[in-house]
């Protein structure tokens, strides 16, 4: 790089940086200063260049740097004070300085320079960085929500599931509170997220809390936040609560039936007044959130028992969605199983599939834990299977033992006698092969010759 190019680069750098730079000769006369430092000192560049530095900055340490021929190492930062009236600020201020002398090739002193970091400008830069970082994570969150949420990703072909989906899409266009009821593992949070993503609030936060997972004495501060020092162990600066985090967006209260009665009163006030008050606070904070709640419990029974407030129930259940258990949608069982298996294959770069016998066994199970239980079973089977095939041997005994007769003869209602015989023969051949692991042992278990076993495998298109 030639001298002219180097000078242009340096000039542009000094213009663009938020820091201050100043250069003095060996006599302490200011020979160079950038505009940012001039702005900090509230003086024009022509007022500064050519003057002794101690006349411009009375507290300067540059004369001492020259005297001691201080070379600097970039690590020792000097906190430089300024007197009132010498900077744009009226009060005394400070700047962090990195000072060093400049020498020629013969080690002769030419002068000194200082690189100044201004506190307020550093804070402004830090704030901009935090805002940029916050926007980045907000966008990442929205992208993830978009990927996971929305009723386009709400799986199930059963008419009962389609009804829930269509109802959810209609409800999403409103701001009414929604109560989602149903068994554990039936996708209540998935529905809540889908409603949020289909609503006009989709660009705002979706905040969820499990009312049954937080101790009763901590639930209030989690929901409403607290002022600094309001109780023992509280952070000095205080903390915002989930309601404030969800402002302008959607607040999902999972397991609302587990909320203590005294907190139900406070929640009712929020729904009525649209404002919250932090623990230890004395001023109301307006909020704008859509409330979606969910429970596995029968809230009407709890109302009759006096363990859930009737007025709160009607506030929460303006619209009610009842989820559908997996056993009520038998044709969706394999859809959910293969979809989750596809996710595992994608994650671990594999090509594991379900055997026909395993599929029949899965369809016959009642799934009291619904989709969550199904995913656990598929995860376990995936981890233990061999040869990229999940068989009955990989499924829990509680599933295979309870439904052996059902899966053996499932899907045969419309078959002729010959078709049913072939169906049963194929299942018995598959079971023998999986249990015995080799052709000779399988043939012996079935009481037939190996040659006949080969013919039957070819007949039923079974590979081993």
Describe the structure.
By secondary structure, the chain is an alpha/beta fold. The chain has three domains: 3-123, PAS domain (Beta-Lactamase), CATH 3.30.450; 149-324, Rossmann fold, CATH 3.40.50; 329-459, Orthogonal Bundle (Helicase, Ruva Protein, domain 3), CATH 1.10.8.60. The chain has 21 helices and 16 strands. The chain has helices spanning 3-16, 35-41, 45-48, 53-56, 62-67, 119-148, 159-172, 188-198, 216-224, 242-245, 261-273, 299-305, 310-316, 333-348, 356-364, 370-384, 397-400, 404-409, 417-436, 439-446, 450-459; strands spanning 20-25, 30-33, 78-82, 93-103, 109-118, 178-181, 206-210, 225-226, 239-240, 250-254, 275-276, 285-286, 290-295, 319-322, 353-354, 389-390. A five-stranded antiparallel sheet has the order 2-1-5-4-3. Strands 7-10-13-6-14 form a five-stranded parallel sheet. α19 crosses α20 (439-446) and α20 crosses α21 (450-459). The longest helix has 30 residues, at 119-148. The mean pLDDT is 86.
Keywords:
464 residues; alpha/beta; Beta-Lactamase; Rossmann fold; Helicase, Ruva Protein, domain 3; 3 domains; five-stranded antiparallel beta sheet; five-stranded parallel beta sheet; 16 strands; elongated
List the helices and strands and how they pair.
Layout: H1 3-16, E1 20-25, E2 30-33, H2 35-41, H3 45-48, H4 53-56, H5 62-67, E3 78-82, E4 93-103, E5 109-118, H6 119-148, H7 159-172, E6 178-181, H8 188-198, E7 206-210, H9 216-224, E8 225-226, E9 239-240, H10 242-245, E10 250-254, H11 261-273, E11 275-276, E12 285-286, E13 290-295, H12 299-305, H13 310-316, E14 319-322, H14 333-348, E15 353-354, H15 356-364, H16 370-384, E16 389-390, H17 397-400, H18 404-409, H19 417-436, H20 439-446, H21 450-459
Parallel strand pairs: 6-13, 6-14, 7-10, 10-13, 15-16
Antiparallel strand pairs: 1-2, 1-5, 3-4, 4-5, 8-9, 11-12
Helix pairs in contact: 7-8, 14-16, 19-20, 20-21
């Amino acid at each position: 790089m030639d001298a002219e190019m180097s000078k242009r680069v340096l000039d542009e750098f000094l213009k663009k940086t938020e820091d201050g730079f100043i250069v003095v000769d060996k006599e302490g006369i200011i020979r160079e200063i950038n505009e940012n430092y001039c702005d900090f000192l509230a003086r024009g560049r022509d007022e500064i260049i050519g003057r002794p530095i101690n006349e411009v900055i009375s507290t300067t340490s540059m004369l001492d740097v020259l005297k001691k021929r201080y070379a600097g190492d970039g690590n020792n930062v000097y906190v430089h004070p300024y007197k009132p009236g010498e900077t744009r600020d009226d009060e005394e201020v400070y700047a962090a300085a990195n000072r060093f002398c400049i020498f020629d090739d013969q080690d002769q002193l030419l002068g000194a320079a200082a690189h100044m970091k201004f506190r307020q400008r550093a804070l402004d830069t830090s704030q901009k960085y935090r805002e940029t970082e916050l926007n980045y994570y907000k966008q990442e969150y929205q992208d993830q929500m978009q990927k996971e949420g929305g009723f386009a990703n709400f799986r199930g072909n059963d008419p009962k599931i389609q009804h829930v989906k269509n109802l959810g899409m209609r409800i999403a266009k409103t701001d009414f509170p929604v109560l989602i009821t149903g068994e554990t593992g039936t996708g209540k949070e998935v529905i809540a997220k889908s409603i949020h993503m289909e609503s006009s609030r989709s660009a705002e936060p979706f905040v969820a809390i499990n009312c049954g997972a937080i101790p009763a004495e901590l639930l209030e501060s989690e929901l409403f936040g607290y002022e600094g020092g309001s109780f023992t162990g509280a952070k000095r600066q205080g903390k915002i609560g989930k309601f404030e985090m969800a402002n302008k967006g959607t607040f999902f209260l999972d397991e609302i039936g587990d909320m203590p009665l005294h907190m139900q009163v406070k929640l009712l006030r929020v729904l009525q007044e649209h404002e919250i008050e932090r623990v230890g606070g004395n001023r109301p904070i307006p909020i704008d959130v859509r409330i979606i709640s969910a429970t596995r419990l029968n809230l009407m029974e709890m109302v009759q028992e006096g363990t859930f407030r009737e007025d709160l129930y009607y506030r929460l259940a303006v619209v009610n969605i009842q989820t559908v258990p997996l056993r009520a949608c038998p044709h969706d069982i394999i859809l959910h199983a293969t979809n989750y298996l596809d996710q595992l294959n994608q994650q671990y770069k594999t090509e594991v599939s379900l055997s026909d016998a395993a599929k029949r066994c899965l369809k016959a199970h009642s799934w009291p834990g619904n989709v969550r239980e199904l995913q656990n079973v598929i995860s376990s089977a995936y981890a233990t299977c061999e040869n990229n095939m999940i068989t009955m041997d990989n499924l829990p005994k509680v599933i295979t033992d309870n439904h052996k007769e059902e899966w053996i003869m499932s899907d045969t209602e419309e078959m002729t006698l010959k078709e049913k015989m072939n169906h049963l023969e194929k299942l018995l051949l598959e079971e023998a092969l999986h249990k015995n692991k080799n052709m000779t042992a399988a043939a012996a278990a079935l009481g037939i010759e190996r040659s006949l076993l080969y013919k039957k495998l070819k007949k039923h298109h079974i590979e081993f």
